């Protein structure tokens, strides 16, 4: 068996390693308390079968609560199905399907006046909506600096 570093693992070996350890299952703050660090030095031997299920497709949208929030915004603003402007629905369809890069490109096409309004509304969203949400405790991030060897 040869020793490999993380940089010399094959794509298949990296995929297997990623599936073996999931941080969310092993993120114990008792093992590594917040704002601390520890040195580690150990070997890992990974042996098993890796498989992948069938591919599928899904809608390229982030629907989570966004759709419900947008519908409530329209309803409470007096917009109904019978009285909603077609351009509003078309814009929602267009913007709702953009990824991060696509949205940045779209925002870059705004006029100065539109950009100012966009920035103002986004700032209000951050302070008045996101800023008012209850805080959820989160564990500190874990990062690793060093070499990983495969024996």
Report a brief summary of the structure.
The chain is mainly alpha-helical and 151 residues long. It is 42% helix and 3% strand.
Explain the overall architecture.
With about 150 residues, this protein is an all-alpha fold. The protein has a domain at about 100-135. The protein contains six helices and two strands. The termini are close together.
Can you list the strand order of the major beta sheet?
1-2
Helix content: 40-55%
Oligomer: single chain
- Overall geometry: elongated
Order of helices and strands: EHHHHHHE
Report the major sheet: 2 strands, antiparallel
- Helix/strand-derived category reads mainly alpha
Mean pLDDT: 78
Q: Give the percentage of residues in beta strands.
A: under 5%
Runs in which pLDDT lies below 50 for 5 or more consecutive residues are none
Radius of gyration: 24 Å
- Tell how many strands the DSSP assignment holds: 2
**How many DSSP H or I helices?**
6
Euclidean distance between termini CA atoms: 6 Å
